[in-house]
Amino acid sequence: MPHTLTGNVMISVPNTHTPRLNLRPLASALRRSLMLGAVLALTPTAIAHAQSQADTAHVQQMDIPAGPLGAALSQFAARNRVVISFDASLTEGLLTEGLNGSYGVAEGLQVLLGGSGLQAVLDRDGSYRIVSAEHGALPALQVSAAALEEAARVPGITVYDAEHIATAPGRNGQITELLRQHPAVQFDRYSRDSKTPADLSAENISINGAKYWDNNFSVDGINVNNDINPGGRTVAANSSTTDLPANTSQGMNLDTSLLEAITVYDSNVPARYGGFTGGVIDATTRDPSQRLAGSISASMTKDSWTEYHLDERYQDDFYDSGDPDGTAEIQPDFKTLTYRATLEGHLTDDFGLLGSVVRRQSTIYDKNIYARTYADNGVTAPTVTDLQQQIDNLFLKAVWAASDRLDLGASLNYAPQKAEYFNINTLNGGFDMESGGLQFNVKADWRGNWGTWRNALYYTEVEQSRQNGADYFKAWYASDEKNWSDPTQRWNAAMEGTYGNIEQSQEKLGHELRLELLPFAAGGVQHNVSLGSLVEYTEASYVRDNTFVQANGTDLVATYSCLTASGAVDTEYCSESPITANPYRGWEPGAGQMFNRLYYYLPGEIEVDQLSLAAFAEDRMEWRNVELRAGLRAEWDDYQQNANLAPRLSGTWDLFSDGSTRLIAGANRYYGRNIFDFRLREERESLRYYTLRDSTTLEFGELTLAARNATSLQDMDTPYDDELTLAIE
């Protein structure tokens, strides 16, 4: 259940001025949607804000006749048992159309005050004050009353408000850290591991047992998932020339100090949301405060301030492990630093700015590059190193109440992330992983006489790249020259290098349009109808800027000479130093080693793109103590060209009409997203070649394409989950 909001919350009821805003097309893929957005009046919604207390969330049947506004407010307060205070001079001479149907407190006040130029302010004690709509802009801490009432009324929805966000324990200010109390959320085995206190990466979560990359992570309703290779965290740093160890399925970080609320949908998810088979996590950023305010802070943690309670059997493994650790899975010696600076406020009554800079960095000390047995056998290279991680978060937000009906807003979130790793037991095996990205959006909300239009134009870029590593990888037998492995083992390669630099990125340009009609009654049933469409163009790329050469240990043969027929001595892929290892096959006494085959990944860029379309319609119907929500979501993309229809149906029956016992049922279908790594795999083998060494001249021959791709994912069906729910609450 959501927590109680601190601070004041306003329910704005605008006057009747009707400006228009035209959006210019930014891309051919979005042109039709943007033209539609330009034709339609774009306006701000009068955002309702409220506390998550039972008295504000409870929906009651209202029958208040049209008449004087003051009398209607008094009658409304008595029926809902809430305190509403106002100056009689404010309502003198004002009329209201009354109420007829089921309403929550916030929603009912919004309708009663419609067209009056007044607004309701919800105070901390749960009472309301009626003030002029010109009283001022909305405060920084606010939670949508509609969202809170929906969370209290509809199963499967949980809203965590600003108080919960501010007080919940968390280590790195990550969104997923705040969801530990949610019964449907499970965390992976890396989560909050006491062995990794300096790991800054966001935690992977599962909702209802789905894969962690099957969730929809959104910020202000805009998806920020990493769809390049979200499952890559299970890829060891030393195991693949093409796959990268990923950050997490959450494509970029956002410091939780910037959030107003987090809404989790774990079942009976509304038709507005798509692209998931697990659940939805939608984070809402807060608006600037009314008054000018700022803060600067710094914090630090370190190993000397930390006390571990370990079983004596495992103390040596933790504090003095002899194993190499290229991904820092054990961190007994560490330090983390966090710096924050925020400045916010309203420059005028209706225009506000918020700016925030956050940097988190950690240092993990003395990680073994080689196993201690290697070092004890005469390794001459450096055997330990420190690893660094860093996350930056630059956030800017502007809000402008352009008129009584039009709200404009824009926000920018730039959140790059960098972490150092190394290939274990490998000479020159260090590399950096760069991830994170950028999100920019512009929003326009227009409240008309019969509904609210919501428009959002957005751009996101997510990166997952490997940088600053060697452009070669060699796996030698141990020898006096290649002395950084353990020759007593049958096959412990003296490895050298990394798998080369790879740049992967995912860019999205999208436009979302929604219409939320004002509640209306028909046949004794109150209807709350919402419609929407989405146009999204996504482009993903895989880039190698330099040639990468791979020399496998399985291609080693014995040799006594590295002199080629051209007179050159091959020192890169041949060594005359006699091997000291015990190879699998026979080896001439005193012979050195050379590679008789090399694999090449040539420089190149692979790009795939996708145009996605979606539309939805939904009606939330209320009749006495029964509520039914029926919706349909349609999706299509130009790659798989599957027309997917996802019905959404859920209902609740308040058995005793007092909220004490409810019967809940639902039947829903959820379609997943296309993971772009699969499509990039189809193409990247076109960059892979090999060359063979002539056994007589010792020269390498021409490059030959290693393999032709025969895989196509285009005819596959879109993954989906069907959900059936039945519960008593």
Automatic annotation (TrEMBL):
It holds the Pfam family Plug. It comes from the Bacteria. GO terms for cellular component: cell outer membrane. Keywords: Cell outer membrane, Membrane, Transmembrane, Transmembrane beta strand, Transport. It is found in: Cell outer membrane. Its main location: membrane. This is Secretin/TonB short N-terminal domain-containing protein. It comes from Pseudomonas abyssi.
